[in-house]
Design goal:
With 241 residues, this protein is mainly alpha-helical. 64% of the residues lie in helices and 0% in strands. The chain contains 14 helices and no strands. It has helices spanning 5-31, 37-46, 48-55, 74-83, 89-102, 110-115, 118-123, 128-142, 148-153, 156-164, 171-180, 193-203, 211-218, 225-239.
Length: 241
């Protein structure tokens, strides 16, 4: 007997919820954690400017903002990353919320995304180019070339290489995935505009620093560049409020 369409839809929802539940729980737990004290002290000693930012935020939780994001697995994190290319955080969240509404209140799995007409993505505000990128990523998750487990086992360099094979996924998206989804400790978003502005303001540049200059400034932060980035993002957000 052929399964009823409603049963199929319900099964897809349950599968998506189960897939996203464990990563989401880990994200919530990580979001509550204060900054690693060893990393924090190394950064304080290595960089006097960061020392001021760190000392001004004794209870800083670098991943607290993740509480505001929807539950997501690796593919869901990439949806957020691709949708957010060249967009503000608020615009990204609006589009992601529309996607959730179209997929029963959750982010689509790879199989769910491949099953819908691309027009459905465009109706949610996803551009044609980004929709094509998401479908290419979905194909890799659906056929097993990419998965939560395989990505978690890869080195940072391997993750970036695997993701940037997909047209429309560049270093910014791949490194954002390393930082947000995999919580890797030594990631620098050297091309991120908000981070470059934060470095310009805090380090006294008379111009927006180039990516090469960002790499030079951040060299002293190794192997905890991710935490330094989080403190700088926080300083930029606070100045904007």
């Amino acid at each position: 007997m052929t399964p009823k369409p409603k049963a199929d839809a319900a099964a897809r929802v349950l599968r998506a919820e189960r897939t996203q539940r464990k990563p989401a729980a880990r994200a919530r737990k990580g979001a509550a954690a204060v900054a690693n004290p060893t990393a924090r002290e190394l950064l304080r000693r290595a960089d006097p400017i960061l020392r001021e930012l760190i000392d001004a935020r004794p209870d800083f939780r670098p991943r607290a903002w993740l509480r505001e994001l929807p539950p997501r697995d690796a593919f869901g994190s990439l949806i957020f990353g691709v949708v957010g290319q060249q967009l503000s955080v608020s615009a990204t969240r609006t589009i992601v919320s529309r996607l959730q509404e179209r997929f029963g209140g959750h982010l689509p799995s790879a199989e769910d995304l491949l099953a819908v007409d691309p027009k459905e993505l465009r109706a949610s505000g996803v551009s044609t180019r980004k929709g094509t990128t998401l479908r290419a990523l979905a194909e890799r998750f659906a056929d097993g070339r990419l998965s939560d487990k395989s990505l978690a086992r890869m080195t940072d360099e391997e993750v970036e290489a695997a993701l940037t094979e997909v047209s429309g996924v560049g270093p910014w998206t791949a490194r954002g995935f390393l930082l947000v989804a995999l919580d890797r400790p030594d990631v620098l978003l050297s091309g991120d505009l908000a981070l470059r502005r934060a470095v310009q303001k805090n380090y006294g540049f008379d111009h927006l620093p180039t990516e090469d200059e960002m790499v030079q400034v951040a060299e002293r932060w190794r192997p905890y560049r991710s935490l330094a980035v989080s403190y700088l993002f926080a300083s930029e957000l606070e100045k904007g409020t």
